[in-house]
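User: I'm writing a short report section on ligand binding and want a predicted complex to refer to. Could you take this sequence and S-adenosylmethionine and write out the structure as tokens? A short remark afterwards would be nice.
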Amino acid sequence: MNYRHAYHAGNIGDVLKHAVLARLITYFQRKEKPFRIIDTHAGIGSYDLSSEETQKTGEWQDGIGKVLTTPMPDNVAELLAPWLDTVRAANPGDDLRYYPGSPALARQLMRPNDRLTLTELHPLDFKKLAALFAGDHQVKTIHLDGWLALNSFLPPKEKRGLVIIDPAFEVTDEFDRMATAVIKGWRKFSTGTFACWYPLKDISGLFHFHDALIQAGVRDVLTLELKVGKSGPDTAMLGSGMTLINPPYTLASEMELVLPWLADVLHKGPGAGWRVEQLVAE
Ligand code: SAM
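Assistant: Sure. The structure tokens for the complex follow:
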């Protein structure tokens, strides 16, 4: 396991992932009934952008850095507020130093009866994650393989919930593992919302992932993508996507407002753009 999210915190992939995650949780808050969030690949929870790792790549400057410093239209500001308010709350001064990862973001948006289950496999990253939430009775941190653990968490006893799957994509069969885990999970919790993040690199892997969901009979599948384009002729296309099962009915239209603005602001070169596509109807 070489991947450490500290090198990438706040980058363009996190922008898409965390903007969507905050919209999902905001939707869950509409009903009083408690919900559970399960984050299978949690990372360390929150990131210090002045750390050696983060400084080495500076990726956040092309992601959250640009989002926070670019004026945005009111409708976009309203939709991004649940996410950006958590970033602002982590940085009381004017400087951006701390960036909430998916666990810290989710935790800030939870109500007193909502619960968060986090798995992280890297021993050092798990140690930091566990320390961040030590003593928090609403959060359970588990040092386990998220792919294996997911099955035992579903269905959650709250019967309302959101599963976030955000693998490191270090291995070539990550899309296959994601398809197997998601299909199995959906069979146990078919009313749950599943949100899977992926980098836009292995397009044939992505195609097979989507095809596996379709063949398994999964309904209500939405895909969202944000591409910032190629920064030079020899560089790879930069972008990422999320595939969601049972998303809130509001999400597609919200993202049709947010993604064009993000694609414009984060634009690096040719090929920048966005996609919102319902792959399988309800
Ligand atoms: N979700 C986090 C966020 O948004 O702040 C970032 C997660 S990062 C992209 C992926 C994480 O998965 C890494 O911290 C890595 O150590 C962890 N990881 C890799 N393989 C895993 C596995 N099989 N089970 C659980 N965690 C794993």
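A remark for your report: The two ends are 37 Å apart (CA to CA). Residues 5-280 form a domain with the Rossmann fold fold (CATH 3.40.50.150).
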